[in-house]
């Protein structure tokens, strides 16, 4: 059994055994204590953010089909995708990358589309990028969805002047060269661009820089990011560490200068290795199911250790930790372009998403933004498309269920959870978040990672004062159950009747491998 203030921290093993899940219906027990009189920090709604890159079919076909497409669209942007993203209250979207960002020159993506120069996407599939989806199209997409743009500047192959002029083009209302160029291209009023990343993965595809060299470049580029709209200053996010590169965080916090956020990238690999097979998205047994969830619990350790370094230089927590790339990365679907990173999405991925969101919520005092990779047709996608067809993934459904936590006040709770044990290793079986929204409603979300056992949670709720509880559950018969275009509803939320209240005592019967959200 494990006890935590909000959710259990992972114990990371190394040996992975292989076997199929055994039939085991024995119910384990967990204990929960929640006191609403001791609220924590707000859960920044940006934690539930998304990421779009010029990669595979994320932009072209996923978002952009063009005005002449038979697929219903508004100014070339898919109407069904916009409607789906509205439903999950997508708070912010990162664009244009990713590795693509540091080869992207924004002037190539403005003006009449027929005259925009093409480029080769050297990072992703070597395809020709026609630049039909550029600044105006992305910001139109954001306005249609009702989400905020998070734009990544080109530090790797761009110039300070190029970055400075892009900010002016997007955000200035002055009678100035870039603002007037925007007007000539059809947009009179400036856009609000609240978040800017100063480069992407500058330790790797963004320039292979040392932390000190990047810190100097960050200070230089950031100097020329002007706040043309004084009432809405731009939040600047510095490129942060890759996984366990704690030295990068230390150097940036010490020498990086003024920043509002520092990024962190970490992907969950089922096999734990970038070399050879990462593991199949759908064809796996309990060995890779367990190793995947064990590896995703690494996020708790990474955030804890990077936050401790940030605390040395920023005890007031003015700089947010921005996990702007996270999610599962598997082998691509057989027969697809390996440079397009198209993978399916299973119940395992839904549980993985819930665990990560719970970890971010638990660190809401430091984690202010996160971006799952990626929104459509790439890696752990919310949405898959096939020409005119659209498919909502199990991960999409977790984001829809968890939107009740966006902007809500976190409610710390004590959780004692049994372990999920496999092959001599163990991880927490249950993770949890609790929050109170502006209307006073209290929400509890749970994940049960154990694929063989339901778990009975008994909790004492202090100060809740509820007389009724309702809920929804996401589960399926098998850990690799996934939605297909032929069977799009194999994994979807259903009404949950497994929770009951008796005074201030809550009892919840979590099904095996499930995600549950309760409302009081």
Report on the structure:
- The protein is α/β, with parallel strands linked by helices and 520 residues long.
- The protein has a domain at 84-117 and 132-328 and 348-377: Glycosidases (TIM Barrel, Alpha-Beta Barrel).
- The protein contains ten helices and 28 strands.
- The strands form seven sheets. It has an eight-stranded parallel beta barrel, surrounded by six helices. Strands 1-18-2-23-27-26 form a six-stranded mixed β-sheet, with no helix packed on it. Strands 17-21-22-28-24-25 form a six-stranded antiparallel β-sheet, with helices on one face.
- A hairpin with a 2-residue loop joins β4 and β5.
- α6 (246-255) runs parallel beside α8 (298-313) and α7 runs parallel beside α9 (347-362).
- The longest helix is centred in the middle third of the chain and has 16 residues, at 298-313.
- It is globular, with a radius of gyration of 23 Å.
Please give the structural blueprint.
Elements (H helix, E strand, L loop, with lengths): L1 E3 L23 E8 L13 E3 L21 E2 L2 E2 H9 L4 E4 L23 E2 L7 E2 L5 H11 L2 E6 L6 H12 L5 H8 L10 E4 L12 H13 L11 E8 L3 H10 L5 E8 L17 H11 L1 H16 L6 E9 L18 H16 L4 E7 L9 E4 L2 E4 L1 H9 L6 E2 L2 E5 L1 E4 L2 E4 L1 E7 L5 E7 L6 E8 L7 E6 L18 E2 L3 E4 L2 E6 L3 E6 L1
Parallel strand pairs: 2-23, 3-6, 3-14, 6-9, 9-10, 10-11, 11-12, 12-13, 13-14
Antiparallel strand pairs: 1-18, 2-18, 4-5, 7-8, 15-16, 17-21, 19-20, 21-22, 22-28, 23-27, 24-25, 24-28, 26-27
